[in-house]
Every structure is written in C-alpha cells, then in structure tokens.
Amino acid sequence: MGSNMAECHPVAFRWPLKAKTEHDAVLIHVDPRFTRTSALCDMHVPIRAGSDIAFLGALINFVINSERWNSDPFFKEYVVNYTNAATLVNPEFKDTDELNGVFSGLSADGKAYSTASWAYQRNPAPQPAKGGIGPFSDMLLRQVPGRPKTDPTLQDPQSVFQVIKRHYARYTPELVERVCGCSQEMFLKVAGTLLDNSGREKTANITYAVGWTQHTVGVQIIRCAAMLQALLGNIGRPGGGVLALRGHATIQGSTDIATLYHSLPGYLNMPDGRKNHETLKDFILTEAGPLATSYWGNYPKFAVSYFKAQFGDAATAANNYGYDYHPKITGDHSHLPMMIDMAAGKIKGFFVMGQNPAVGGQNARFQRKALAKLDWMVVRDFFETETAAFWRNSPEIQSGELKTADIKTEIFFLPAAAVPEMEGSFTNTQRLLQQHEKAADPPKDARSDLWFSYHLGKRLKALYRDSTIVRDWAINNLAWNYDPEPAEVARWRIKDEPSAYKFLKEINGFTVSDNKPLASFANLKEDGSTACGAWIYTGVIPEEGKNNAARRKGDDWISPNWGFAWPANRHIMYNRASADINGKPWSERKKLIYWDPLADSGSRDPAGKPLLGKWVAPSGEGIDFQPTKAPTARGKDSALGFDWLSGNDAFIMRADGKAWLFAPSGLVDGPLPTHYEPYESPVENLVYKQQSNPVAKVWNIAGNPYHTVADPKYPIVVSTYRLTEHHLSGSMSRWLPWLAELMPELFCEISPELAAEKGIKNAGYVTIQTARGEIQARALVTRRMKPFIINGKVVHEIGLPWHWGWQGNAAGDVVNELSAMVADPNVSIHEGKVFTCNIQAGKKGGVI
Amino acid sequence: MAKGMFVDTTICIGCKACQVACKEWNGLPAEPSHFRKTSGMPYPVANNFTGDSYDNTGSLSATDWRHVRFIEQFDEQRSQRRWLFDSDSCKHCTDAGCLNACPTKAIIHTDMGNVIVQQDTCIGCKFCIPSCPYGVISFSEKTGTVHKCTLCNDRIHNGMGTACAKACPTDSIRFGDVEDLKARADARLVQLRSKGESRANIYGYTEAEGLNVFYLFVDHPLVYGQAENPVVPQRRLILSSIVTMLVALGIGVAALVKFRERLTGKPEEESHES
Predict the structure, then answer these.
(1) How far apart are CA B32 and CA B46, in angstroms?
(2) Beta strands in A448-607, from DSSP E residues, in sequence order
C-alpha cells in the first residue's frame, strides 16, 4: 500500500517477485490505480486516494475480532508482552468517539494538542539509585518515572487494547465500501489473507513509500500499518515488518546523517531556541528525559560524542563540549515554511544541491517566485535545471509576470560530479551502508559534493579566522580534518579531493586520545573521551583501514558480510521479538535470534565461574538486544537503558520497551490513527464530524489558495506520482535522449468513463486546473483508472506523473503548478498524493 | 552450444531498462524521429507519445532493437484486469528467414547460434525484411544497411551475457545455454499451470523450427503481437514450387484444350473475348 514498488523501486522489486515465484508468496497491491506493481501482484485492490486509514483501521478491527486471533495463543503472547496493549491510559483521555473526531487535549483554537491526557497511568517513581555513571546520566537517573501500570488480561477498559477496540469498532467492511470505494468482498479477502499469513509459522510484510507519506495524515497512516503488524506479531521477525521504501538513492543516509533541519546525525534532536535547551544539561534532560529508560538512556554519550566530533579539541567540559556555540533552530524551517519565508524576503541566500524546487516544489509557481526574492543562489547539478534557469525562461518570465531585469538574485551554477565519479557510500531503504568506488574523474570543473562542501568550509574558515566575535566560535573551532590523502588521489586528476574515508571514520567515531576507530557504540562515553559523528553508524569502520560498508560477501539469506546494516549490523530491528517470552524461536521456520541458556556469556561470577546464557544468531545477524539479558529477567526500576528494560522488552528504543499501539507521546496529531479526509476532498468525512486533520500545517497566504470541501469548481481527485523512466523532477533523466524518449511527454491518466463525460480523446490534449495553476497534458485514457462510488456518488480520480519541466530533451508543463502547500503536522510533508482539480478537453486557453 | 534468451514475461515489470541497456551497449542513438527541434528551445524535444499504454516506440526499428509492449486487458466492469508486458527482440531463429533471403550472405549464424548482420557485406537490398515473420529486421537510411539485435555478439563471445539480460532487474530476461533455459522455462510453465494459468505457453519451442530466444506467455501469441504460426518464407518453397508447377501445368493443359477446340472448328462466337 502507498507504494508503486515495481515502478519506483524496480531493483528492489526483484525480491517480492522472488518470494512469489520461488516461495509462493501472495502479493497484494492496495492502490487507487492499477499500476505496474498491480500487474505483477496476485490481487489489486483499488481504494480512493486518501482513504488508507479507513482501510487499515478496518483491518485492525477485523483482526482483533477474528476467531483465529482470539484463539491462537501466539497472538496474545506476542501482543501482551511485546506491545503496550496491556498498559493503562490516563482516565482523562477522551477518544474521537466522544469528541466528534478529535482527541482530548485540543486547544481552544483547535490548532494544537496538549498530550497530557494521552499519558500512561504509572506506579510511583522509584527511589533514585545512587548513580555515579556520569554527570548527565546521573541527572537522567534522578527523574526516571514509575513503571507504567498494566493489565495483562487486557480487560481493563482503560487498557490500550480496549481503547483500540473501541476506537476501531466503527471501521467495518461496510464503512470501507462507503469510504474507500472498495467492495466488502475484496476487503475481506485482503483481511483474511493477511491474517492467514501471520502467526508462528508465517509472517506478512507491509511495504509503503511516498504514497503514504505525502498526506496530511501521512505519519498516522504509517503508524496504523505498524499497529496492525504489531497486533499480528509481524515485527522483529523475518519476512515481517513495515518496510519504508525511500524516495531515492541514499535518502535513508540523508536522514541518518541529517540533512533535515530539526535533526542532528543519528536521530538526536537539533538544539531548539523554543525548547528548554539553554544548556547542554537542559538539552539532554529535555530530549532524553522521556526516553531514558530505553536504549536512548545512552543519549548523553551520543550527544557529547557528537559535539566532540563537531568541535574536536575545542570541545571541553568547561564549554559544554561546544554546545553553547552550536546553532539552534528557532522555528519550522522545513521546505515549505522555508520557501514561504523566502517569498517574504526573509532569506538571503540558498544552496540547491541535488534538488529542483522550480519543478518539484508544491505550488511550484509560488516557489519560483520566492527564488526571485533571494540575493544569491548556488545551484549544483549536472544540467541547467529549471531552478537554475528560472530567471531567464520560467513560465513567469514567458507570461511577463516576472522580468529578468527585475530579478536581483545572483545565480551561481556549478557543475556537479555524478555518483561513479566520486567515492562514498549509499544508505538505502534497508539501512545498509554500501560503499561505492570512484570509477572516473568528473569532467572539467565538475566536482563531488564532498569536494564542494569541504572547500567551501575551508574558505569560510579562512575568512572567519581572525574573528573574535562569540558567534563565530563555532566556525572557527569546527573540526575540519578531511584533508586529501595522497594515496587515495594518486591515480586521479583531481588531487584536492578530500578523503571520504576520513569523513566516514569521524561518523563512525574514535577514541580522542589515540584516534583509533570505535568498534561499537557501546564504547561511547559522556566525558569527552570519545568523538562520534553519528552513533548509529559506529562499527562501519571497526578498526583502522577496515571499511565494513565495502564488504561484498553475500549468502542466500541475511548476508551479514555484505555492506554494513546500522545499527551494529542488525538487519531486522527489534529482533528480540523473533523469539517467544522464554527466548525460544516462535517456530523453526521463522527462527532468527534465540536465547541459548548454555552458551558462555563471556563474563564470570565472583567465584570466577563462567556465567552461562546469551542470545545467539546462527545466521550472523546482529542481536538487537542486550546480549546477556535473560528473556525472563526483570529490569531495575531505577535505572537507564538496558538496565531498566526487562527480558521481554523487545522494543528497546521505546521508553517502556514495547511496540506502541497507542502513542502516549511523540505525535502532535493524536495517539491513534483516525480517518480524516485529505485537506482538499470532494467528499465529507463519513466517519467523523471532524473533516480533516485538525492540526495539519496550513498556510493561508497570498498565492496559496485552497479549495473548499466538495468544491463544485474542483470535483476531481488528483494524485501525482513518478514513473520508472524518469528521476524525480527529471533533473537526472530529461537531459538524456535515451531516457527522454522512453516517456517523452507529460500525460494524464484518465478513466474512459471520465473521458466520455468530458469529451476527452486518448492521446489528445487536456487542461487541468486548480486554484493554484493550470497545466496541459496528453490524455492517456485507460481502464487502469476507475471511478469510485463513495457513499453512493461517483468520484473520479486522475493521475499525473510530475517529471516534466520546460528544460531538457523531454519537456512539459510543471505538474506542481497545481498542488497546494499544506502538510502533515508531524513531519511537514506535503499532500501531493491527493488534492482536487478540474479537467477539460483541449490545450490551455481552450484550444482543442 | 547454442546460446539464447528466455523471456519470462510474467515477471517483466515493463521498466524498459532492457531498451536502454541495449542502446547503451550497442551504441544506438535515441530514435531521431522521436524528437523535434523547435525554435527557442536549446534541445531537440521528444514528442513520441504514442497513447498506446506505456509503449514508446510501437515497434522494433534499426535503432530500437528492443521493444517493450504493454497490453491492457480490462473489461468495462474491471472484472477482468490484466496488464501484460513483453520485451520483444530478434528471436535468433535456428532457421532464419532473413539469413536465407540474404543474397550476399551478410547475415550469418555464429558458432553460438545467434544471427547477425555483417555490416560490411550488407548491400541494403532489403530482401531480408519481408523474410522475417516477426518484423524484426529494419533498414537504416543513415547507413544504407539493415540492423537488428545481435544477441550482443561481442559480449557473448567474451564470456558475458547480453546487455538487456544484465540490466533486467527481475531476471525476466535470462541469457544462457538454450538447453538450460528450456529447463528453467519448463519448470516455470508447470508452476504457472498448477496455479491455474491454463493459457500459459512457451512461444519459440516449435515456432519456425525453434527459436533461440523464446518467451513465456500467459495468453495467445497474437495478444503479444507475435505470429500464431510463423513460417519462414523459404519453408514454403517446396509447396509453392509444386503449386507453381501445377498451376503452370493447368494453364498449359487449358491452352492445349483451347487450341484443340480451335483446330476442331468450334464456332468463335462463343468466345466473350474481343
């Protein structure tokens, strides 16, 4: 669901196909359109775009009320022990059933939630243990709360399980038919197949991509799938899980080594001027406090080691390891607010590297006009993208809305090297770091991103060298030790290429005193004696000169000696859950890690006798648990991290060690996924009075108008998406004639029913309009598209791939002229997967 | 030993990576007729939208040695819903019509069983074009010769597989010894039939004396744009010779009869000829 895997991840799609052809796996595709993926699946289940939570919620309802789930002891054992189903929720919590579709805690203006009423019921806080671990850890130890109260029988009305049961009771097959436009028979077939293929002997996987993220309820859709999988016992086990297919190569890497505004490498949070982040202690207490009983109890070690990596010798205990000089964010600086600030003249300069917002940005016209407000912009790419060329030939220039002479933005267009022209690593969907070698020098002045960033840093440091201003401390003391290595550059023309190895080593971490790489993040310290760019990558360079990302020894299963899967070469996260509460594999077929009571733990008792018992994995899989914690061990009440977690707390990154069916914190739009209509929808919400996500990010500003609910001017649903033949905004494909001819022109996928209604002919032209803009496209009339019957009324959907722009060998209108800037409140991702529009036959301006 | 390819269309995802890999390895340009130069645009811009599903070429050509077909099989109610993909190319016939027709012996079988056009001895007479029952071989105005897939002759004679098979992300196109590939195809056919694909068939075992590139289809070959019972024209030679002789004989006999009628003095008026 939410993924067109064959289309957008064709190389990875070989694995589901292998499962199908070699292991008789059943593949189901739930998607509004019949796509290349549907073509290869056993079943295609069309649902209206934006109705995913209604469908998934009904699956949850089906599963927990099914006879099998209630009679097979596997499900109860998994759910009671490994999820928070048994945990009791604050009695003040009020669900959507009582409040017309919103949760308790919504502010008076209806725009933000206070999450206090979503909290767990807890036992009294323990007497704090003595500490002596370190200054930051001791501080965390003093605030460890009491353990959550539970009811393992799952009968307490305030237990998470009962809350969920009530919440999803209204999500019936009949509701699915009315809301999603999918027949009850089809829904029940999916539900039955999913349930039949989950349990001790079998696991089922759910795979998604941006088809789920690009919604105002994107995070909640994904959470709903995770809940379903947790209820089915499909997490932490081979063949299970919720697999996130990332947007393109090494996007996983770019969130790990955070290019995101709000995140530091390794998923530490960015210091934030709006939070209690005044000092390093405040920062750690605020960020790690609520998580300290999970493996995040090691947050102080990760954070201090990060600052040591950032500022090197200048980072000392006296200056809080440089924290005092580290930049802080002051607001939402994600892409859309950034462009809105730019349009308001608040941003002077802009680096665009590997991005093309003039085509890829939502409400692209708005974003292009924002570029015209900059003083300067640097674009690094292979070709003169639309972003680089906006000042001379954008649609706004063509229409006379903007004049080149009036645009003050100074544009620096710099040639970039391609992947085979540089050394580095990819971290893809499965968290696997894979090294790639440089195969050739880039042509002429083209340089790698690493080269550019390194030399820019060097030049900036030179400019600031003599500054004594406090705010310049950070750049003056930034550790920048990536100088070219003669041996690495010897065979290449470009001799001043920085050492990619040195970057990776810093990311991996090292001991400050002897500069030796760290083999494990368990060795990190909070006293400044270790430096580590991103703790999750520790172990990729376990010793000097050895790069585990470059390993190329595969086998026919886990392949532990192929590349390096973070963290610590664990390919399946939370794999403690692959064994039962006593540490035995759930089944021989699904064996992954298990407790061997006779294995030598490696440590000795006071008498010198070896202590027996440890977790083992014959496949070589990394163990995502404390290796010597017995499955039945009880955690200590006043402790951090693994010491607090018990032997059945498989979900070690959660503060209670459990998979969260109910999210007491961490989300801004509710503890349970709830069906809301997309921000622009042709229908009213049939599930609740609340129409759409009450706290969605909405920007009511000039140039970004929205359609109303069931707007008669814009009655048709549109989804934007990608094709195999092109790369995102086309920046890597539309300038290559070989690829340009594969998908030459912008087209719009339309059902024959809608085409007949509108007089549209296949291969003719159509014009599509929204309040933001108007584009023309060729019509591809196909029965792969279908009208949906929603609550008795016909709802038409059209599809628009968005790869085209006015530059390149394949040119066409920019589809994002149509989309709106509106976003998910948790992660600020736009709603490109569903909004409304109008369509008519003929070219723009009414020319047939 | 004969080399060939097995194309399992049931795991083809229609990604066209084979089309691109073929062009890249064989130095074939994007099809010039797919692009238009417009004033004001710095680049020639592609304008080959076909409106035929995701098909971008419509056929094989001198620059498109591979062509992925997209076959949409949907009824109005969407109770039947199927989208078939088929990556088509030269079949490398064991009895090749193009080869038989070539007057200069420019088209040959190599020791690996693949059929290639030797560009230096092709005279561009085009006799081979109608002799191919699959419409594979095409004439290039640019070179004055004919072109088609060589089964990556240079690669396979240097221990590598074909470029298309190498690029195929799902191993839908496999290169190898024909006998091994047949074993694989047979096993897959059994598997599909056991799952209820009653129309599953291998195209290329019996067609035109056997093809070194064969396909697993789940519908009639015609659905995939392939001839149902392809015959290499030269295979009709004996039959058509006999027919020709018989016809000639018939005409001769008729003429003789007519002549004898004249001799016997039957009235001329009965003739409608003027």
Answers:
(1) 9
(2) 510-511, 530-531, 564-565, 594-604
How far is residue B129's CA from residue B120's CA, in Å, rounded to a whole number?
Answer: 18
Q: Calculate how close chain A gets to B197, using CA atoms only, in Å.
A: 12
Q: Which residues of B119-138 are buried (b: 16+ CB within 10 A; e: fewer)?
A: eeebeeeebbbebbbbbbbb
What is the three-class DSSP state of A216? coil
Test the B interface: residue of A742, A762, A781 with most B CBs within 10 Å: A742
Residues 664-723 of A with CB under 8 A from B: 723
| CA pair distance A213, A430, nearest whole angstrom | 17
Q: Is A784 on the interface with B (CB under 8 A)?
A: yes
Q: Cβ(B200)–Cβ(B189) under 8 Å?
A: yes
Of all residues in chain B, the one with the smallest CA distance to A811 is: B45
Q: Dump the DSSP string for B57-86.
A: SSS--SS-S-EEEEEEEE-TTSSSEEEEEE
Predicted local confidence at residue B272, as pLDDT: 53
The token duo for B79 is 């109770």
Residue of B nearest to A37 (CA): B13
Note whether B46 contacts A744, CB cutoff 8 Å.
Answer: yes
For residue B191, what is the nearest residue in chain A, using CA coordinates?
Answer: A21
Burial class from Cβ neighbours inside 10 Å (0-12, 13-18, 19+) for residue A392 reads: exposed
For residues A723 and B68, what is the distance between their CA atoms, to the nearest angstrom? 15
For chain A, helix (H) and strand (E) counts, in that order, are 27, 26
Distance of CA A288 to the CA centre of its chain: 21
Chain A residues closer than 8 Å to B83 by CB: 34, 36, 38-39, 784
The pLDDT-based confidence of B274 (bands split at 50, 70, 90) is very low
Residue B85 carries which side chain, given as an amino acid letter? Answer: F
Q: In 3-state terms, what secondary structure has residue B53?
A: coil
Which positions in chain B touch A780 (Cβ < 8 Å)? Answer: 51, 53
Q: Which residue of A has its CA nearest to B70?
A: A36
Q: How does strand B35-36 pair with strand B45-46?
A: antiparallel
DSSP class of A692 = B
Residue A132 burial (CB < 10 Å; 0-12/13-18/19+)? exposed
DSSP A122: B
The torsion angle over the Cα atoms of residues A33, A36, A42 and A44, rounded to 10 degrees, is 0
Residue B273, pLDDT score: 46
Q: Which of B50, B85, B171 sits opposite A39 (nearest CB)?
A: B85
Amino acid at B268: E
Nearest Cα to A106, choosing from A677, A686, A821, A693? Answer: A693
Partner B contacted by A778 (CB < 8 A): yes
CB contact under 8 A, A17 and B85: no
Find all residues with CB under 8 Å of A811, minimum gap 6, and list them: A734, A804, A805, B41, B45
C-alpha distances (whole Å) from A133 to each of A495, A525, A634 are 46, 10, 21
Q: What is the pLDDT of residues A111-138, one digit of tens each?
A: 999 999 999 999 999 999 988 999 999 9
Q: Residue A213 carries which side chain, given as an amino acid letter?
A: T
User: Chain B residues with CB-CB distance to A under 8 A?
Assistant: 11, 13-17, 19-20, 23-24, 29-31, 34-35, 41, 43-51, 53-54, 56-57, 72, 74-76, 78, 81-85, 169-171, 188, 191
Cβ separation of A737 and B35 shorter than 8 Å? yes
pTM above 0.90, yes or no: yes
Task: Indicate the residue type of B178.
Answer: V
Answer whether A21 touches B (CB < 8 Å). yes
Residue A37 near residue B207, CB atoms below 8 Å: no
pLDDT at A301: 98
Q: Closest Cα partner for B60 from B30, B80, B90?
A: B90
Please identify every stretch of chain A with a pLDDT value under 70, giving residue numbers as ranges: 847-848
